[in-house]
Write a structure and sequence with these properties.
With about 220 residues, this protein is of the alpha/beta class. The chain is built from eight helices and five strands; from the N terminus they run αββαβααββαααα.
């Protein structure tokens, strides 16, 4: 069954007396390299861009088009958690940290949040509701998913220019065959997440090859 996001969750909150509702989502949790990004978006329901949907259901071109419109029509904040934070806190906690940073960065602070997933960041300054598959249900969360995805894709493309060979402009750091093969051949960069098994395996392989060469 396929769902399209709508404003029902937002309207429930407005009817309950909340006036500034932000959707929050993250992207990059499964990537082998780079930060995890999150976005918080307060939509103007009277000025919605056409075609808002879960970012995974949109082409790259459509996401970029919508992100530009959202920057003009909505209140938007983007934040990230670094590779070091991912390795130090684990990917779940780093994702929640990025979400909290995105919320705190909004120019107008919300009085209620709709957060994609089944966990809420700690330390929020307003009530929040976790919404499983929220990017398919809530327009605000769908908007946040688009902004976060576009910003992270741009970041990974920039890192890809600095570290050619891994295909980050295409795979955004995810574990595609090209990326895994490059890890084995070139070894990890400082942007790879050392707490992720494919990266640890590549580090061990590189260490073994170096030891064999020294012998």
């Amino acid at each position: 069954m396929s769902f399209s996001p709508n404003s029902l969750l937002e309207r429930e909150l407005w009817d309950a007396g909340f006036t500034v509702v932000a959707g929050v989502d993250e992207t990059g949790r499964g990537s082998l390299a780079g930060p995890v990004f999150a976005a918080a978006v307060v939509l103007d329901m009277g000025n919605l861009p056409d075609g808002l949907n879960d970012s995974k259901k949109l082409s790259a071109g459509k996401r970029e088009e919508l992100e530009m419109v959202l920057r003009e029509s909505a209140i938007v904040s983007v934040a990230s958690a670094s590779r070091d934070e991912i390795d130090g806190f684990n990917i779940l906690n780093a994702s929640l940290l990025a979400m909290r940073r995105a919320v705190n960065g909004l120019q107008r602070q919300p009085d209620h949040l709709l957060v994609d997933g089944n966990r809420l960041p700690c330390g929020l300054n307003c009530p929040a509701r976790a919404v499983v598959a929220g990017d398919t249900l809530s327009l605000s969360i769908a908007a946040a998913s688009i902004v976060a995805k576009v910003e992270r894709d741009r970041h990974m493309s920039e890192l890809g220019r600095l570290h050619p060979g891994y295909g980050w402009s295409r795979n955004c750091g995810y574990g595609t065959r090209q990326h895994i093969e490059a890890l084995k051949r070139l070894g990890p960069t400082q942007h790879h997440r050392q707490s992720f098994k494919p990266v640890r395996d590549a580090m061990e392989l590189r260490l073994f090859v170096d030891e064999q060469g020294d012998g």
